[in-house]
Every structure is written in C-alpha cells, then in structure tokens.
Amino acid sequence: MAGTAAPSTGQKLTAEFLGTFILVFGVIGAAIFSSANATLLGVAFALGLSVLVAAYAFGPISGGHFNPAVTLGLAVAGRFAWKDVAGYLVAQIVGGILGAVVLLGIVASAPGADVVATFRSASTGYDELSPAGFGIGAFFIAEIVATAVFLFVILGVTSAGRAAANFAPLAIGLTLTVLVLVAGPITNGSFNPARSIATAIFGGSEALVQLWASIVAPIVGGLIAGVLYKLIFDRAAKLSA
To answer: By the 8 A CB rule, do 192 and 219 touch?
Structure first.
C-alpha cells in the first residue's frame, strides 16, 4: 500500500491561513456578537474550542501553529525549520486579518453600528484597553508568562514518545481556555500577534498605538519557552539516550 504523500508547502501555508481564520473568526466573533450574554468563561471556551477544531482539522497538514509566537518558539526549540518561518507568519497574519474582515462586514451591516468601538473592545492592550485597567507592566507579565506556558504545553504534548497520541489538540485548546480565564481581565487574552493585529487594524488609534506590545510580549514568551524547553527537556532526553 502506497504511503501518504507529505503535504506540500502550499498546502501547509493554506492550512495555517485557514486555521488562523477559524481562530480569529471564532473567538472575536464570540466576543463581539455575544457581548450581551457572554462571560469571560464563554470567550475563553470560544478560543479553546476554535483552536481545538482547527488543530484537529489542519494540524496533520501544517503542524497547527496558527500563531506567530508558536512558530517562532518551535523554531527556537528546534522543532520547526527556520526556512519555513516567514511563510507561516505571513499565512497566519493574512488569515487572521481575513477573519476580522468578515466580522467587520457583519458588524457594519447592523443599524447604527460603531465598527471602531466594537473592534476596540476586542483588541488587546493595557491601561484604557485593559478590561480591568491594568498597566503595561501587568500586561507584559501576563502575556509573556501565559504564552510561555502555552508553548511549554505544546512542546510537551507534541514530543515524540512522551505524549498520548491524538490528544495534543485537546490539551492545547484547554490550556488556552485556562490562560484566557487568567489573563483575559488583564490584557483581553491574546497570546497571539496574528489575533491582535486582526482586531487592532479596525480598532482605532488606541488599539494601533498599543499593538506593538501585543506583538512583542507573546513573541518574547514563545522564545523563552522554546529556549528553556530545548535546554532542559530535549538536552536531558539526549543525555539519557
């Protein structure tokens, strides 16, 4: 029986594009359209479930990153080729923006809709953009630590010979749910530059001015986790081999 051909570069980038589209459409759509009834728990589950279904659908094709911080963290950890990083980042950002564009079209069709205010409420940030008014210091701590935890989980549940087969997307989705419950009131819970870019470009000047932080903090967290995991766990595995 012939083996299944490995996915092409185009298929991988398409999978990352579609997965990030699903993520942004799911979580931002839940935050925007369910605002009257939504709770932090509801938005947290929307993010976790969006990543869960996208990972099961497209993970076997592209690895299921859907997040520039994840791609960079995996590359630093030696789990992803640096030559493929740029393509993944572009696919993720474009997919996220398209998800926001579709939501924008829906929001704009409502009578008396304030598109900027709607996307501003879903944008990540500190001070006036923080749901509970936290400052930039708390923002960086929350986003860096949460993204690092997220990467540690991803690296752990996808380690060959260490993880239970087929359960990685479930663990990853549930981890995101927990992290949003913790960081949501502080930052609006991004841990993903592509998601932050998607909402900020339609969220007005405040969201755009603060966007740099929502790009830098998750990437720093991802890089820290990638370096530490490689030094601690992968090195230990090699020494014991």
So the answer is: no
* pLDDT, the chain, mean: 90
- 8 Å CB contact between 56 and 167: no
Let me know if residue 1 belongs to a domain: no
Tell me the two tokens of residue 227.
């370096």
pLDDT reported for residue 131? 92
CA–CA dist 51, 224 (Å, integer): 22
- Count of domains forming the chain: 1
pLDDT in the model for residue 237: 53
User: Does pTM top 0.90 for this prediction?
Assistant: yes
The values of phi and psi at residue 160, to 5°, are: -60, 130
Query: How far is the C-alpha of 127 from the C-alpha of 134, rounded, in Å?
Result: 5
Residue 127 placed within a domain: yes
31 CB-near residues (< 8 Å, 6+ apart)? 38, 43, 46, 121, 122
Residues making up the chain, counted from first to last? 241
